[in-house]
Amino acid sequence: MAEVNLQPVVRVEHLSKSFGEGTARVEALRDINMEVFPGQVVGLMGPSGSGKTTLLHCIACILEPSSGRLTLDGDTVYDGHWLKADLRRLRLDKIGFIFQYPNLLPFLDGTDNVAVVLDLAGYSSGAARKRAMELLEYLEVGHRKHAMPRQLSGGEAQRVAIARALANRPRIILADEPTAPLDSARARIVMDLLRRIAVDQQAAIIVVTHDEMILDRFDHIFRLRDGRLETEAAPKAAALPV
Ligand SMILES: Nc1ncnc2c1ncn2[C@@H]1O[C@H](COP(=O)(O)OP(=O)(O)OP(=O)(O)O)[C@@H](O)[C@H]1O
Fold it and tell me: Which CATH code for domain 10-236?
């Protein structure tokens, strides 16, 4: 019988984050609990100022929480304080980040924009470029591998940026409004790509979005309001790998 893998890739327990002190203190996140499983694509929604970016940045180990626990890919990385000395290495190994705008380096072609991450991770130049080209093929922009960013359409540039986020085979992919600059057809293409990546790589994908057009693309939606999660329904059983 197939074994059901119920270990979440992202586990957030009682996580809180405040900024400032005294009367200037802002409770940006209050007692957040969430789990995201392999193969899942989840949405993180909420009004402006509700804490979405703060939560994404805590999970990305860019921002230090104030309290709680964070476990990534079975490894507890924060438990009242960081448990890892080298957070940059941790991010390179475990996390891929997709931004609202592709932020491609304008002086590098599509291939090198992806390969640069692999250079940082210690790949040889040849191996980095080979993997970069494979990823561009996978994301159906292989024919644009030598194009400079200014020559790419918005959707093509976003796919190169997604390839870059995938370069190091991260188990966790965090996306901040990845479809905001795209029309609804291209937004759906990007969401379908993220779904395929989640399934193929058994990755957990968290997407911050305001985009009502893509709500049906999520396995589960976490809604934040004033730093609290409004719903914590169990993830869809069908989305769990067997
Ligand atoms: N560096 C900071 N210093 C002080 N307060 C901050 C800081 N970053 C965020 N905040 C506050 O924390 C709260 C949550 O902000 P956050 O950016 O996470 O919200 P958001 O849901 O991502 O908003 P938006 O949809 O507008 O991007 C807000 O009240 C914000 O003003």
Answer: 3.40.50.300
